[in-house]
Amino acid sequence: MAPVGMRDQQADLRFTVRDSGIGIARDQLATIFEEFTQADASMTRRYGGTGLGLAIARRLVRLMGGELAVVSEVGRGSEFHFAVTLPIEAASPRLAAAPSLSGRRALVVDDNQANRRLLRDMLAAEGVGVAEAASANAGLEELERATREGAPYELAILDAQMPERDGFALAAAIRAAPALSATRLLMLTSAGQRGDAERCRGLAIQGYLTKPVARADLLEAVAVLLAARPA
């Protein structure tokens, strides 16, 4: 495709498609745009096809105000081209850049080491400072310690299915601690159960994802949750 002119908020564009195939004989060029027609009947047996493609293409080009034409040489290939005039649309507004996660702090609480490492690596690649806890009790202690020392975690990512004390019980304990009230919570579950969404709302858990978590989904959820807090 190449622009060939511009006027009155319209652009003249030329589209060209070339191939290095078997080519088309000069005396057959006039018929190849007819329906159910191919330059050589043996091509259907050798290459397949219905003989409709070029007829449909010509109709579409004519609907846009152009004309499909061809130049070909047997044994060298073919060139199909057409020109159309299209309106120039106003530029779309630029999408806002995704907020940076660099420098934000998160705690991952999961009894599975492989899961913790995967989440840590995905977040750390975006500049998030990530700490880990292998149990709900250890996670609560780490959140409280960091808050006492003046460097609270902005986000806690909780595994819903942990032994002894699951993620929902941990979320309830976090919400019961006034010093941790600003902590954003993201719940991860490997088996979404009926009623989980209601439990999340009841515990003021701001985000909920089902494992395995895709990197894009995780980063989007974290960005949304942290956007509600100043860096």
Question: Which features does this protein show?
Answer:
Rossmann fold, Heat Shock Protein 90, 9 strands, alpha/beta
User: How many distinct domains?
Assistant: 2
Computed over alpha carbons, the radius of gyration is 31 Å
Range of strand content: 15-25%
How many helices does DSSP assign?
Answer: 7
Structure description:
This protein is α/β, with parallel strands linked by helices and 231 residues long. It contains 7 helices and 9 strands; from the N terminus they run ββααβββαβαβαβαβα. The strands form 2 sheets. A 5-stranded parallel sheet has the order 6-5-7-8-9, sandwiched between helices. Strands 1-2-4-3 form a 4-stranded antiparallel sheet, with no helix packed on it. Helix 4 (136-148) packs parallel to helix 5. The chain is elongated and about 85 Å long. The two termini are 46 Å apart. The mean pLDDT is 85.
